[in-house]
Amino acid sequence: MITITEQKPFESILSSLGKIKSVYIIGCGSCATTLHTGGKSEVLEIKDKLEEAGKKVTGWMVIPTTCDQLTREALIENSTTIEAADAIVVMSCAFGVQTVNFYADKPAYPALNTLFVGKEERPGYFIEVCMQCGDCVLAQTAGICPLVRCAKSLLNGPCGGSEEGKCEVDPNTPCAWQLIIDRLAAVGQLDKLEEIEPVKDWSTSHSGGPRKINIEESSE
């Protein structure tokens, strides 16, 4: 599993920085490096662009994993050059930006957009596999998630627009429900299609606000 990101347009980054004159840049050595959105090469590229735009770059680093506690130690080790900056530009997922913001006394600005959690289906090609809805339906759909694989997130079979096993939204994309039906048939569970899935309770997803869990309480 990997957090999928893309670089923000440079104009958007400049706009968010506004009148800030000096910045420190942080990249991520895991997901963002794999995706070529926030590794060493990308950090150096954004450094050059910021300097060309008149911003002073006091320093930069690529933290092995920006979204964990190692970030705190990295910030301490580089405190001198970070203190010389007005803000920090973070080239990682949103979790990494929030982690930097938590441990630093400087405002942190994202240079990337966080898209989804996915897997590498083939070299360089990533696909979303889970939206972390908090109420998994994979037992009913043969392990294929209709919420992310279906353009309409349908829970009770395909829409009328699918044709020859392809999605009407994108004819190059397999219809999620055709995949589900084929898989259910292969494992002898087509009868599951007769079960009506009720309206989705989205309160278990991010739609219900920030989610929290206490492992000690849940294990009692």
Structure, briefly:
The chain contains nine helices and seven strands, in the order E-H-E-H-H-E-H-H-E-H-E-E-E-H-H-H. It is an alpha/beta fold and 220 residues long. It has a four-stranded parallel sheet with strand order 3-2-4-5, with helices on both faces.
Describe the structure.
The protein has 2 domains: 2-115, 3-Layer(aba) Sandwich (Rossmann fold), CATH 3.40.50; 134-203, no CATH class. Strand 4, helix 6 (94-103) and strand 5 (108-110) form a beta-alpha-beta unit. 27% of the residues are buried. By secondary structure, it is of the alpha/beta class. The protein is built from 9 helices and 7 strands. Strands 3-2-4-5 form a 4-stranded parallel beta sheet, sandwiched between helices. The protein has a 3-stranded antiparallel beta sheet with strand order 1-6-7.
How are the strands ordered across the major sheet? 3-2-4-5
Give the count of helical stretches: 9
Output the helix-strand order: EHEHHEHHEHEEEHHH
Mean pLDDT: 91
Could you say which structural class the secondary elements and strand pairing correspond to?
alpha/beta
Question: Key terms for this structure?
Answer:
three-stranded antiparallel beta sheet, single chain, alpha/beta, 2 domains, Rossmann fold, 9 helices
